[in-house]
Amino acid sequence: MGFACQVLSPYLIDTSNFEVRAKHFSERHGLVIIVAIGESIVSIGVGLTGSELTLGLIANVAVGLALAYVLWWAYFGIDDERGEHALTAIPPRERSRPAVLAYGYSLYPMLLGVTLAAAGIQMSIAHGNERAGLAAASALSVGVALYFAGQWGFRLSLGLPRPWTRLISAAVVCATIPIGVYWVAWAQLAAVVAVAYAAVIVDDVVTLRTGHHSSYV
Questions:
Q1: Is the pLDDT of residue 3 over 60?
Q2: Is 136 left (phi over 0), alpha (psi -120 to 50) or beta?
Q3: How far apart are CA 106 and CA 198, in angstroms?
Q4: How many CB atoms are located within 10 Å of the residue 132 CB?
């Protein structure tokens, strides 16, 4: 009930007099994503307590950390800064609803995606040379797909370029589930990382070729 009130309240009351300071607003919500990704890394380490240290385990952990990094880069490489600029460009009296759509509703699937992906990474590392169960394989791929779907909503809400690329990325990531179920868990993890990196790099290259830049690229 509380969640429903939170989602519906911006449409039930007049928010035109509510001042949204774009820089502060985007910065604070960005910190939420950073904390979520950081906690996911901690949970990976905690889940491996007592595991035997082998080269295979180290390699799997490295790939898992690479996935955490690409999730960070997917948002903070360009979208975070572009989102702030787009929100600033909206007249103050019209800013509330796009702010809620981009930094509220769109962040829900991103945060849920980080949580699911962290659980999937942990289970994939723990059983790297074995087949992954359907739940573990789905958590990994669906988690990353949800993160990309949230970015689609973020871009769409603020009128940022190419939101559809994130939906395509989400679909391709979901297609890696059978790799873990029918082969081995580490192969699915590696495939998810490869797909995610490719999606982010291609999108960044297109952005740079159109003349747009950020603090990082």
A1: no
A2: alpha
A3: 22
A4: 29
Residue 81, C-beta contacts closer than 8 angstroms, at least 6 positions apart: 214, 215
Polymer length in residues for the chain: 217
Distance CA 81, CA 26 (A): 9
Distance CA 83, CA 65 (A): 26
Nearest to 160 by CA among 216, 215, 217, 214: 214
Q: Are 143 and 119 in contact (CB under 8 A)?
A: yes
Highest-scoring range by mean pLDDT, 51-55, 94-98, 187-191 = 187-191
- Location of structure tokens 């992954």: 132
Phi–psi pair at 127, nearest 5 degrees? -125, 45
Look at residues 105, 92, 80, 86 and name the one whose alpha carbon lies nearest to residue 215. Answer: 80
- This prediction has a pTM of 0.91
Domain extents for the chain? Answer: 22-209
